[in-house]
């Protein structure tokens, strides 16, 4: 294969990765932006989405497409409810203190991961794609499902944007983000808003996982790498800025595909983590973040 | 009795108790306690930064691993003696903590945690990347012949316990001296109110940097001794999990207390020892402990004792 088609293939793979990464990172970014909570357990909600998708598709046992559609609804809702419950029982009691919540979400990370290990087991299991159509370019065949993943991610991201910008709920969320106390003074039930946001963030991660699980496999340790990548994306994009997050996700997802042509995966990861550390050190508000406080 | 006197009796008594235990403990617990003492040194190092200075690092495994690999690699590839290798390990941790301190201290709060996490992740990946020398995840065994400190063969359980006890006693004495000295008081002042400490004319950056260096170097010493005493160095000691452990031990035992790290490490070690016999998902209990601690006992065990019974505890 020539370099041109090879690059095209790498870009397509990069676009799929960007799409999933953007969904997941937007979830992390929402939680950080509105609640000022760094959710270290975010990767585990992603993993939970994939594992739930496996449970649902296996349990339903009908045509893969039906199982997949049910999973697409059930997994995010379950993950969201678990997250909301965790928020109300743990994070609320910590009064959302930034440092305590990090420690508590590390605890949640282990709890979710190990409970899945106990129930689902240490195996990686595949979920069948809802359809297995392929389309052909002059050089290679490519799974149509992967394009569907990109399309779904775009639709969902537009949905989040519409939710934040156009609806009453979005208005309430933005008000809470700007000034928690003032929002409370205006009668916004801040605690319920926080539970909603934490649930929504987890649901987005789970949704990303359901979309990706027909391509990857469901495994109890699968949350680690996406978590690291989403951190990188959220930081590069500017902590709490949604547009920045999406831009950074595309940037990183695409370049990840292309960097890994030139470097070994381990070296690519080393460079990426170092990059994040130095961005934070020299541009604490991220590349797209506003310069404030 | 004056407070200084009381603390001297308490901590001297603790060392004496550990020495007595050397003669009476059955083999299994004797071996465990040797391990716990070295891990407690790691936790005490962590505590200097987290408990006394109020800086939460999520990357201390890199210092622990720097000590361990600084010691292990020089024995393995350069043929260093045990003493020289220990010095190399401690020196590696010292240099790394100085560099990381300079860089990471430009950030505060959440950014500091993420920066330290990222540096530790880089360290872990670097160990994997140079797998040819470090043997990656698999790790390497340190030959019995090189595990002799000043004529004492530390692969013998008795000598190993005593070496761990000496390390623990020295580090505890250092910490005790440190937190009662003006320097330690300034660290606590920074933890309580950084702005005020700065207003009073203290150089906050220099104090924090010194805290990171002391903390990182002590963690590195623990890593070097751990590798030498138990004869193994592996990449898992550089993983995120080993950055979380000292945080857990310190929170459990009591942040900002001298004996808390030992109590926390001992408790957690046996919790995991017992539960890993029941299930392979033993980290579940670490997770539950973390959540319960943050919600119900922010002060940890020794911290609660200090709050209720003995406000003089250092």
What does this structure look like?
The complex is a heterodimer of chains A (293) and B (314). Chain A contains eleven helices and two strands. Chain A is mainly α and 293 residues long. Chain A has one domain. Chain A has a two-stranded antiparallel sheet with strand order 1-2. In chain A, helix 1 (3-35) runs parallel beside helix 5 (144-166), helix 1 (3-35) packs across helix 9 (224-237) and helix 2 (42-60) packs across helix 8 (190-212). The longest helix of chain A is centred in the N-terminal third of the chain and has 33 residues, at 3-35. Chain A is globular and about 60 Å long. With 314 residues, chain B is mainly alpha-helical. Chain B is globular, with a radius of gyration of 19 Å. Chain B has one domain. Chain B has a two-stranded antiparallel ribbon. Chain B has a two-stranded antiparallel ribbon with strand order 2-3. Chain B has helices at residues 3-24, 27-52, 61-78, 82-104, 109-129, 131-134, 157-180, 182-192, 194-199, 204-230, 240-253, 260-275, 283-296, 300-308, and strands spanning 140-141, 148-149, 152-153, 232-233. Chain B is built from 14 helices and four strands. Classes of the chains: A mainly alpha (293), B mainly alpha (314). Chains A and B meet through helix 4, helix 9 and helix 11 of A and helix 5, helix 11 and helix 13 of B.
What's the SSE blueprint?
The complex is a heterodimer of chains A (293) and B (314).
Chain A: H1 3-35, H2 42-60, H3 64-91, H4 98-119, E1 134-136, E2 141-143, H5 144-166, H6 168-178, H7 180-185, H8 190-212, H9 224-237, H10 242-262, H11 265-282
Chain B: H1 3-24, H2 27-52, H3 61-78, H4 82-104, H5 109-129, H6 131-134, E1 140-141, E2 148-149, E3 152-153, H7 157-180, H8 182-192, H9 194-199, H10 204-230, E4 232-233, H11 240-253, H12 260-275, H13 283-296, H14 300-308
Antiparallel strand pairs in B: 1-4, 2-3
Helix pairs in contact in B: 1-7, 2-7, 2-10, 2-11, 2-12, 3-4, 3-10, 4-10, 7-10, 8-10, 11-12, 11-14
């Amino acid at each position: 294969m020539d370099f041109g088609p090879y690059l095209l293939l790498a870009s397509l793979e990069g676009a799929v990765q960007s799409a999933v990464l953007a969904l997941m990172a937007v979830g992390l970014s929402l939680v950080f932006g509105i609640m000022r909570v760094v959710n270290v357990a975010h990767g585990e909600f992603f993993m939970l989405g994939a594992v739930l998708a496996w449970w649902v598709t296996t349990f339903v046992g009908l045509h893969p497409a039906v199982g997949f559609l049910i999973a697409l609804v059930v997994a995010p809702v379950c993950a969201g409810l678990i997250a909301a419950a965790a928020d109300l029982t743990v994070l609320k009691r910590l009064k959302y203190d930034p440092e305590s919540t990090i420690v508590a979400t590390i605890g949640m990370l282990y709890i979710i991961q190990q409970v899945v290990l106990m129930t689902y087991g240490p195996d990686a299991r595949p979920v069948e794609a809802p359809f297995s159509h392929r389309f052909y370019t002059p050089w290679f065949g490519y799974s149509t499902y992967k394009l569907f993943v990109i399309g779904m991610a775009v639709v969902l991201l537009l949905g989040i944007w519409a939710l934040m910008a156009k609806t009453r709920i979005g208005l309430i969320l933005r008000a809470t983000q700007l000034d928690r106390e003032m929002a409370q003074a205006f009668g916004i039930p801040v605690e319920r808003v926080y539970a909603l946001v934490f649930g929504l963030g987890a649901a987005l991660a789970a949704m990303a996982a359901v979309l990706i699980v027909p391509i990857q496999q469901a495994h109890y340790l699968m949350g680690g790498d996406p978590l690291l990548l989403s951190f990188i994306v959220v930081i590069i994009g500017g902590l709490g800025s949604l547009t920045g997050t999406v831009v950074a996700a595309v940037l990183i997802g695409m370049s990840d595909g292309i960097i890994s042509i030139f470097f070994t995966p381990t070296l690519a990861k080393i460079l990426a983590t170092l990059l994040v550390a130095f961005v934070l050190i020299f541009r604490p508000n991220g590349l797209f973040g506003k310069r404030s406080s | 009795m004056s407070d200084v006197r009381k603390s001297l009796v308490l901590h001297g008594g603790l060392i004496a108790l550990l020495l007595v235990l050397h003669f009476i403990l059955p083999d299994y617990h004797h071996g465990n306690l040797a391990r716990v003492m070295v891990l407690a040194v790691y936790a005490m190092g962590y505590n200097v930064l987290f408990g006394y200075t109020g800086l939460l690092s999520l990357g201390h495994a890199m210092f622990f691993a720097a000590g361990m690999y600084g010691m292990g690699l020089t024995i393995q590839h350069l043929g260093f003696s045990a003493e020289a290798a220990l010095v190399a390990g401690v020196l590696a941790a010292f240099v790394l903590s100085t560099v990381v301190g300079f860089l990471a201290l430009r950030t505060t709060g959440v950014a500091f945690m993420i920066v330290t996490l990222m540096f530790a992740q880089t360290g872990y990946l670097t160990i994997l990347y140079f797998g040819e020398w470090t043997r990656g995840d698999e790790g390497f065994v340190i030959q019995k012949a090189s595990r002799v400190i000043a004529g004492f063969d530390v692969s013998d359980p008795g000598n190993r316990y005593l070496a761990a006890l000496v390390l623990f006693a020295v580090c505890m004495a250092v910490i005790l001296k440190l937190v009662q000295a003006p320097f330690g008081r300034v660290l606590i002042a920074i933890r309580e109110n950084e702005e005020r400490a700065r207003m009073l004319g203290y150089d906050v950056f220099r104090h924090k940097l010194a805290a990171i260096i002391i903390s990182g170097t002590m963690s590195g010493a623990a890593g070097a001794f751990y590798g030498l005493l138990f004869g193994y160095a592996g990449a898992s000691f550089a993983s995120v999990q080993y950055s979380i452990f000292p945080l857990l031990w310190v929170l459990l035992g009591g942040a900002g207390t001298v004996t808390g790290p030992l109590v926390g490490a001992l408790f957690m070690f046996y919790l995991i020892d017992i539960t890993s016999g029941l299930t392979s998902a033993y980290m579940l209990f670490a997770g539950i402990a973390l959540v319960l601690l943050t919600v119900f006992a922010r002060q940890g065990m020794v911290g609660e004792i200090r709050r209720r019974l003995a406000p003089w505890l250092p």
